[in-house]
Design brief:
Elements: E1 11-14, H1 18-30, E2 36-39, H2 45-51, E3 56-60, H3 68-78, E4 84-88, H4 93-101, E5 106-109, H5 114-142, H6 160-172, E6 179-182, H7 189-200, E7 206-210, H8 216-224, E8 225-226, E9 238-239, H9 241-244, E10 249-253, H10 260-272, E11 274-275, E12 284-285, E13 289-294, H11 298-303, H12 309-315, E14 318-321, H13 332-346, H14 357-363, H15 370-384, H16 393-404, E15 407-410, E16 415-418, H17 425-439, H18 444-451, H19 455-464
Parallel strand pairs: 1-2, 1-3, 3-4, 4-5, 6-13, 6-14, 7-10, 10-13
Antiparallel strand pairs: 8-9, 11-12, 15-16
Length: 468
């Protein structure tokens, strides 16, 4: 079955020499751009444009009938957002300057290097995408109504900050540029990524992968796949997740934990829109949309050299910050009610009644585990519930943790609270590790991030039993 054409709107090639048109078409096709229209008679260009607007134009300057410079003026006037790359055998600075002043996006001198063609094309497509996204974003921000509320059905909220995020996602969803989702553990970053995929209406599937803990080889094998015989034990061809995400969305979670070598591979994937399976030397094109998520401060990681700046700026073409639960406490009643329904259904119990005081208790807690932690609290309460009104004890325990533990970080105030007797460093570290594992349901990667240490360091502490 044939996949979708790349790019969605065709690339228009205009040149009076058929051999050059065939060469350009072949170069683009071999690099995954299979949606092209070739026109050798400049008089037919406007008729072609009336039938279908292209994503980019490669325009020869010297042609009979209607010259490239005349066509350039008409294209810029009638299609101001259409990038036009001028191609000519005239290596004249004055001509190049004139074309750029008249609105050309780029100027290439024949014979044109293949890499130069591809670079100009990718830059032109990115510019067109950004212009399109900006116009959609302006339109969406003027409106306070969601066009596709069904895409966000999994996220229960009445918070205006969340709805601002939703409107932004509606504006950027149809473009091919990467999206970075930033937020604390438990805020629902994968739900946001799934919403982006639904809004994009892409024909392919949504393929998630957590990259935390993947070394360079495993990362490449997981994403790109391998050929038969690529390494010992590779007894058959294995397609990677990027192939499974064809015409869809590849979601890379915990991107801040990616190794430096894997960052280089991901950067190439984003820049060139191609990859190679392990054991192969032939690039394969991809049209998968990349969405990444992190709960780490990538700006700090850049400063320490742990995260590449070029990759960071490439990934954050679009980025959203998901507010933590403590910044939208008005959502507590809605969320608790939704989780009560879900828990009652899963546990085959009657949905319990919750006392109004419960929201005062919950509202005083800062929820380091965010919505995920709230859900766990509600499920635990329903599991222990017998009949009548739901007990407040399980919710009060969340607050009591602050008093029972000798030391607790208040992330809002940036302060520490101590009991009457100071704990030893060994005791403090041990309790911190225990608490981090409790809050993350034993997930060592996430617990390590909460503690600000590497997963390997946490594993070492657990094996030693010393907690330091």
């Amino acid at each position: 079955m044939n996949g979708p054409s790349i790019p969605g709107q065709p690339i228009l090639l205009i040149d009076d020499e058929e051999a050059i048109l065939r060469s350009l078409t072949a170069i683009l096709l071999s690099n995954g751009f299979d949606n092209t229209i070739a026109v050798s008679d400049s008089r037919q260009v406007l008729t072609t444009l009336a039938e279908q607007e292209p994503s980019c134009v490669f325009l020869d300057l010297v042609m009979p009938h209607l010259s490239g410079q005349e066509l350039l003026e008409q294209l810029v006037e009638k299609f101001p957002d259409l990038p036009v790359v001028v191609t000519t055998a005239l290596n004249e600075v004055e001509t190049a300057v004139t074309c750029m002043k008249r609105g050309a996006f780029d100027y290439l001198v024949k014979p044109i290097d293949e890499n130069r063609i591809l670079t100009a094309l990718r830059r032109a497509l990115e510019l067109r995408d950004l212009k399109f996204e900006n116009s959609l974003l302006k339109e969406s921000l003027r409106s306070r109504v969601l066009k596709h509320p069904e895409a966000f059905a999994e996220m229960v909220t009445s918070d205006e900050g969340m709805f601002t995020v939703f409107r932004y996602l509606e504006a950027i969803s149809k473009t091919a540029q990467p999206v970075m989702v930033i937020g604390e553990t438990g805020v629902g970053k994968e739900l946001i990524a799934r919403a982006i995929h639904r809004l994009s209406e892409r024909a392919g599937g949504f393929v998630p992968v957590n990259v935390a803990g993947l070394d360079d080889t495993l990362f490449a094998d997981t994403l790109f796949g391998h050929a038969k015989g690529a390494y010992t034990g590779a007894d058959r061809v294995r397609p990677g997740l990027i192939e499974r995400a064809a015409a869809g969305t590849l979601f890379l979670d915990e991107i801040g934990d990616l190794s430096s070598m894997s960052q280089v591979k991901l950067l190439r994937l984003l820049q060139e829109r191609e990859y190679m399976r392990l054991g192969e030397d032939t690039p394969r094109p991809t049209d998968a949309r990349i969405v990444v998520a992190t709960n780490r401060n990538l700006a700090d990681l850049q400063g320490s050299g742990e995260f590449r700046k070029d990759l960071y700026y490439r990934l954050r073409s679009h980025h959203v910050m998901i507010p933590p639960l403590r910044q939208r406490l008005n959502d507590l009643p809605l969320l608790v009610d939704a989780f009560l329904d879900e828990a009652a259904h899963e546990l085959n119990k009657k949905k319990p009644t919750i006392p109004g005081e419960a929201f005062d208790v919950l509202g005083a807690y800062h929820f380091p585990g965010n919505v995920r932690e709230l859900k766990a609290l509600v499920f635990d309460a329903v599991a222990r519930h017998e009949a009548g009104v739901l007990s407040l004890n399980v919710f009060r325990q969340a607050l009591q943790l602050l008093a029972e533990h000798p030391v607790e970080v208040d992330r809002r105030a940036g302060s520490l609270q101590f009991g009457l007797q100071l704990p030893t460093l060994k005791e403090t570290r041990k309790r911190l590790i225990e608490e981090a594992l409790r809050r993350t349901d034993g997930n060592q990667s996430v617990a390590a991030q909460l503690l600000g240490i590497s997963r390997q360091a946490l594993n070492k502490h657990l094996k030693s039993g010393k907690g330091d």
